[in-house]
Here is the input.
Amino acid sequence: MTIAWKAPAAAVFCTFALLGCQANSGPVGGGGGGGLDPDTGIDADGNPTGDGSNTDTGFPNDGSVGGSILDEGVELIGADTGQGFICTQAASADAGAEIEVAANGLVGSVLGPLLDLLSADSVNALLNSVRDRNLALDQDFKTAAAVTQTAAGLLGQLNSLDIVVNLPQTVGSGRYAVFALSFPPSLLDLGLLSSVSVTTLLNDAEVETGATVDATGLSLLGFSTDQLGSVYALVGYKASEPFDAARLSISSDFLSVDLGENLFIHELCTGGRLVDAPAS
Here is the structure.
């Protein structure tokens, strides 16, 4: 169970307060969609129109992206299903949400003992390993928070780097907890991605687990790839139970080298619809 943990005065706080987690059209626990910028930063040929920076990355919200979205253990999207997912509602940075950077599946007070084992430089590297966090909560697919390699050198001390989006309201069953992600080709070419997984939480307890993708399965899951080699993925759940947080865990050799920005978090979708996947 997660208990709120506050660092000593000399330490670095582990929680980054952001604002919001509801679509402009209504509270996150309600029905309906909207609030998303219709310009996704992807052209008609499926390629980004921006410069690849955090503020100009692009993610195709058109049903073409594969990944793993589970509904009580059943895959909803990907090459074998003929279905795609379109995000219609996403976490927003204007109503009190928080993003926590954690490790080894630990947040709150139970993370404290782990941080106590790390040097001050290592703690700082961990807690600063997500750049422009608010861009994952802005309802704009052109932008993204970037998971960086400031945590390089922590391999052996950490099994996973975790990004937790805490919602200010409980999201009901039947809604979605789906992260929209993209991976630069450098991460995949070097085989650094062991796995990315998503877990939903309610009152700090795990609710749903099992939605996972890894580098070896990318070609089998219907992932979209642009001409630059970047890979897009949707990972999460059609919730069978209520949740008030979603945790993205990145486990691997990802923490072993410094390659710059190696994973982009575009949005956390809380609403969406299934569509026929576009012909490839």
Remarks:
- Residues 15-25+50-266 form a domain with the Jelly Rolls fold (CATH 2.60.120.260).
- Helices lie at 112-117, 120-127, 185-189.
- The longest strand covers residues 261-276.
- The chain has three helices and 15 strands.
